[in-house]
Amino acid sequence: MMKLLRIELKKILTYKIFWVLTGLYFVFLALGIILGEHIINNWVDSINRHIPLPLPHVTLYFFPDVWQNITFFAGIRYFLIFPAIIIIILITNEFTYKTIRQNVINGMSKVDIQLSKLQIILCFSVIITTIIGIVALILGISNTDSAGMHLMLTKLLFLPAFFLEIFTFLIMAYFCAFLLKHTGLAIGFFTLYVIIIEPVLYFLLKIPGLQPNNVSQYLPVNSVIRIVEYPAISSLQRIMGITLQDHISLLHCGITVGYSALFLGVTFVVMRRRDL
Question: Is pTM, for the whole model, over 0.85?
Answer without folding.
Answer: yes
